[in-house]
Amino acid sequence: MSYAYLFKYIIIGDTGVGKSCLLLQFTDKRFQPVHDLTIGVEFGARMITIDNKPIKLQIWDTAGQESFRSITRSYYRGAAGALLVYDITRQLHPHKPKVAWAVLLCSWLPESRETFNHLASWLEDARQHANANMTIMLIGNKCDLSHRRAVSYEEGEQFAKEHGLIFMEASAKTAQNVEEAFVKTAGAIYKKIQDGVFDVSNESYGIKVGYAVPGQSGGAGSSSSQGGGCCS
């Protein structure tokens, strides 16, 4: 299947917030709780429809560890959209090796609100290295674990409002709002194209024109649905 536009996304946020699980749920419609850490960058893609036009989303899932930040930064420049993810809860990281449980318990438990408190740093990186018109969706993941909530919905909403972001809470496990988050981001990018914000002939904006679109030009592309790892 050809596409009218291809949008490139990047998923960013701390390790363990569920970035890869969100991608896997969106591309493959499944949840995989046992996983390895994302090393560097992984990839997924899926077709959606916006305004009756086929849109291909090409999604780069990045590692959250500080040691991979320089790699992550290199992907900002070619992205039209970013999903900035935090964990609304305080819970165990399942990627940690389950040995010496009593000794390591404290290291497994992130400080309450830690991933939310790091959002400003991730956003600063994105704003510094991405194009100024990149659409950013803030996602509070793991909303199915509301009994472990450490960050209120209102706090996430306020952070998004203050920084000009779109905001949703979602659950990669139950799929709540996962589709909506990816599609709403694409809708915002598409509106910017319609409003003339993006020069779609410049692929550095993370947008590629596919089949003939009135007023635009470009070649055709193919669709794929490919997951990129599991939770990270």
Automatic annotation (TrEMBL):
Its main location: membrane. GO terms for molecular function: GTP binding; GTPase activity. It is found in: Endomembrane system. Pfam families: Ras. CDD domains: Rab2. GO terms for cellular component: endomembrane system. It comes from the Eukaryota. Keywords: Membrane, Nucleotide-binding. InterPro entries: P-loop_NTPase, Rab_GTPases_membrane_traffic, Small_GTP-bd, Small_GTPase. PANTHER family: DRAB11-RELATED. Belongs to the small GTPase superfamily. Rab family. This is Ras-related protein Rab-2-B. It comes from Panicum miliaceum. The lineage of its organism: Eukaryota, Viridiplantae, Streptophyta, Embryophyta, Tracheophyta.
